[in-house]
Amino acid sequence: GAVVSQHPSWVICKSGTSVKIECRSLDFQATTMFWYRQFPKQSLMLMATSNEGSKATYEQGVEKDKFLINHASLTLSTLTVTSAHPEDSSFYICSAPNWRGGTGELFFGEGSRLTVL
Amino acid sequence: LAKTTQPISMDSYEGQEVNITCSHNNIATNDYITWYQQFPSQGPRFIIQGYKTKVTNEVASLFIPADRKSSTLSLPRVSLSDTAVYYCLVGFSGSARQLTFGSGTQLTVLP
User: Fold this and answer.
1) Residue A8, preceding bond cis, omega within 30 degrees?
2) B26-38, pLDDT tens digit by residue?
3) Mean pLDDT across chain A, nearest whole number?
4) Is B104 on the interface with A (CB under 8 A)?
5) Which of A34, A70, B13, B20 has the fewest CB atoms within 10 Å, i.e. the most exposed one?
6) How many CB atoms lie within 10 A of CB A3?
């Protein structure tokens, strides 16, 4: 099946620094990718939709300048957490849909655990 | 966007069949129903997808009534390794729709 890979799987950074997380679709092209964050014992919360060749679409309440998204190619989307603070510590997950015959399956990355000290 | 409602948690014993029901009253005509499994600190993993009636694969069955306002994921003979959170999502009508995750169901399989 299709594979979506995230990197890094975990990262620890100091408060005030920026962290970039990559999401790659390894064997299919994805014009759209989704970014989620998940706090402990909670469900996935959609943060934004990454669109290849155009601006990302952010969900209400998500700061665009805080979470920069770039969909540079049909297989790569990046999420940059700028000026990270401890409250940004979370599990970030990306996903990409793979369409087949009108229906789609959403493939998820392994997730990236961000800890801001 | 179709909203889903699932039980927060369920307990079962090894070897039993587990049925998890999801309500999605405002499902759209072209929406499919997809179930995902998530282990701690991992991304969700696809289990099964269906549109109507019954779908079966090597790991689960999905039952969808005629009105499609609910669906039931059936896991035959669960094992300890099936302990996870299970999410049902509704969407994907051929366009890149955003999917909203509900609360999911924490399934705990006991020995």
Assistant:
1) yes
2) 898 888 899 999 9
3) 91
4) yes
5) B13
6) 14
